[in-house]
Tetratricopeptide repeat protein
Amino acid sequence: MASSTVTSAQPERPPRPNLAFRRLRGKRSPAEFAAAVRRAAREIGERVSCDARYVGRVEAGEIRCPNYAYERVFLHMFPGRTLTDLGFAPRSSVRGRPTRTTGESRGAGEPYESYDTRDTQDLYETHDNNEESDVLRRAFMTSGATVAAASLGPLGLAFDAEAAGRPTRRAGTGEAGALEEAVRRIRLLDDRHGADGLYRRAAAPLRTAYALLDAGASRQATADRLYTGAGELAISVGWLAHDSGRFDDARSHYAEALATSRMNADAGLEAHAFCNMAFLARDAGRPREAVRAAEAAQRAARPLGSARLMSLLALREAGGWAGLADRVGCEQALVRAQTFFERGPSDTDPEWMSFYGEAELAGLEAQCWSTLGDWPRAARHARRAADLQDPHFTRNLALYSAELADDMARAGRPDEAAGAGMRVLDLLDEVQSSRIHTMLAGTARVLLPHRRASGVSAFLDRHAALPRPA
């Protein structure tokens, strides 16, 4: 990761070396320890780009508190210990900063733009004070241009005031790195909070990404990273639109990503775009298009060598067959999905697939059986998905529980449906997803005739009191 060329004010106090973390490294070199961190991340389905430089920064005390992904990995590596035991500061001590007025200077460890912590505390918790701040501070900067802050929470993405215009110089590795980091941040925030509160704020960085593409890059390797990063960002923004019920916007963003993949002959990006297009077509009631998009995704993905990717794409195809009421086609695709999944993860699995594990496999299969009207079978898979889901993926936990509630209601088990629905309601303070709200509304309608069943009345009353999503 390139270091910042921006001159910043010095921190108020020098960092204190993290001696506890240094002791845990033991006799391993920083590079060996970083490799162990990456292996531990893969064990729990996380992806962190840990290297010797990151380890050095932690030990030097420059990173006072790791982001959530690193926290989960470190606690997995050292069970029974807390962040404090590992030598880090409590998250509460570094989670926010007061609003600054225009013109005030930024400390070296602060996010790029000013923001009010009352509005962004939860988002800030996903962002290190120091970790990767160099890239974020430079993000989407253009030489000689007037730069304005485009807020995506505290992601710190800045863009040219004339974002639709051409930047004044070609992009370099700093911009490519910032673009890649923006995609990771959006995915992390979506995992925890859902799409509804993020979609509008993600539009400005996406405009900037394509402005950088138009400006070009000084090296082909950097240009390739920019194309891939812009395409992945378009897919991420498309998913935010998709999950918040803006299907036309999602279709446009996915098509933009597909065009980007074709221009750069990027098979991985093409497979990802078709994968999401298949999912969208299924949700939009176009099941035959879903099947064809999933088939196209599999053709693009086959040379990539990722069995897990092929498994997910087979599930996308199965969802299309289910929508066509083709039980045989659906079952065949589900068998292929399971077969590919059992081959296990590999280094060829795309970074964006960090969400795909046993829980997602079970959840998507539940959706197929639900579409086919096999409610008891759908409920079994939905329950398994909810039981297996890592609590970090709050949105997916709410989604699987909502699927379970709906399947139970339609299978004639209103009391169990109400219990699952209550668990979803408990998560809605953290999750904003129109998809989940829509599912709960359908469940509530099915349960209305069963108000006297155990727990149903309480669920219906609490659901009725929910604020309607905008």
Observations:
- Residues 1-96 form one domain.
- The radius of gyration is 23 Å.
- Confidence is low (pLDDT under 50) at residues 1-12, 95-168.
- The chain is about 60% helix and 0% strand.
